[in-house]
Amino acid sequence: GWSKDSGQATQYTSDGGIDGVINEDPLGLETIYLQAKRYADNAVGRPDVQSFVGALEMKRARKGVFITTSRFSSEAVEYVSQIEKKVILIDGAQLARLMIKHGLGVSTKASYQVKAIDTDYFNEDDVWQTQKNSNS
């Protein structure tokens, strides 16, 4: 965000279907509302997404992001493609990719270096001599 205060989580219960808020600009002209569901196996269905869209309507919001650790049903995905509001669905696989890409909530366990010959290091005579010796 534009500052450390540009986003905030809402209260845990009685949040009106909104789990977080992101202010896109310092004047508060654009706000993105968030909903998150931590499921192991259950798909987030159309009713959950419709409920979130209703919560967006109560805030007179135009943008929302619905995040789940599982997946969205095909009906939920189809629903957001048919509504006027801009609602982005982020499933568990996409969430993991975003976390890795932005280094959020992940740590590096190991890193590897792959080495390649730096041909600029050698002059042509050295390379010719090396090739001549290997052909002998």
Give an overview of the whole structure.
It is a single chain. With 136 residues, the chain is an alpha/beta fold. The protein contains four helices and seven strands; from the N terminus they run ββββαββαβαα. It has a five-stranded mixed sheet. The protein has a two-stranded parallel ribbon with strand order 4-6. Helix 1 runs parallel beside helix 2. The model has no long low-confidence stretch (mean pLDDT 85).
List the helices and strands and how they pair.
Layout: E1 7-9, E2 20-23, E3 31-37, E4 43-44, H1 46-58, E5 63-68, E6 71-72, H2 74-82, E7 86-90, H3 92-102, H4 124-135
Parallel strand pairs: 3-5, 4-6, 5-7
Antiparallel strand pairs: 1-2, 2-3
Helix pairs in contact: 1-2
